[in-house]
């Protein structure tokens, strides 16, 4: 969920494909794949979202961003985020983040928007440097939808973004139903940010919104790898980081789930977009390497 426009994003995509060759693999359509083996990793933190139906997410693990984030969280997003049950609750063993079309002003800033959603984070509850970070997610569908599973450096309040660093484990935009993206963002002395990004696409005609998929990042000193289900699709090494950029992936990061509506990259919803839309999270798990 970086603070860059769509033109920059697609330019960075082209650069990243050149700098970081990657293999696009397809998953089995429809059938849910089992998580890859976690041999060599120890589970240290998780949320299985097994609370009562209609309950709020566990407050010992999650807190919220709220409001419109100034200019739409740096991306000109159209929603306002809330901490209401209507936008984030437990249902049937899943965290359900719902994007709703309604006129609402969150009390945090009083700005009226025509869409509401939720952005949950573990900031102040849990953060970790290095390991495996994974979540089993069923994303929504529709023009203007922008679900994401990502991380920010826990020093963001002192150094700001992008110096804190950002790891995007999964992003999808509604107009690309069969493609997700994994990305890294940091600071640079020559441009606003230094970045690496890569796509993963399903076989023709398959859509990520049709089923749950496992999205993961394995992070160790000097390297971050991205996975969908059992497929490794991108490896970003510090040795190939863009010239002038700072490799800031060396300190604890916290987790974020959100479902944005509109923005520079996905564009706005249109008359084909159905509301409400839901992002379902079966579980999120964090491991350390043994």
- Given as residue ranges, the uncertain stretches (5+ residues, pLDDT < 50) are 4-34
Number of helices: 3
Compressed to H and E, one letter per element, the order equals HEEHEEEEEEEHEEEEEEEE
Question: Beta-sheet strand percentage?
Answer: 35-45%
What would you call the structural class? mainly beta
Report Rg.
18 Å
**Whole-number mean pLDDT:** 90
Q: Can you give the helix content as a percent range?
A: under 10%
In whole angstroms, the N-to-C terminal distance is: 30 Å
Taking the sheet with the most strands, its summary is: 10 strands, mixed
Q: Count of DSSP E strands?
A: 17
Shape: globular
Describe this structure in words.
This protein is mainly beta and 290 residues long. Helix content is 9%, strand content 41%. The chain is built from 3 helices and 17 strands. The chain has helices at residues 6-19, 69-76, 156-159, and strands at residues 41-47, 63-65, 79-81, 88-91, 94-105, 112-117, 119-121, 131-138, 145-153, 166-171, 179-186, 194-201, 213-220, 223-228, 231-237, 253-261, 277-289. The strands form 2 sheets. Strands 1, 3, 4, 5, 6, 8, 13, 14, 15 and 17 form a 10-stranded mixed β-sheet that branches. Strands 2-7-16-9-10-11-12 form a 7-stranded antiparallel β-sheet. It is globular and about 45 Å long. The two termini are 30 Å apart. The model is unreliable at 4-34 (pLDDT under 50).
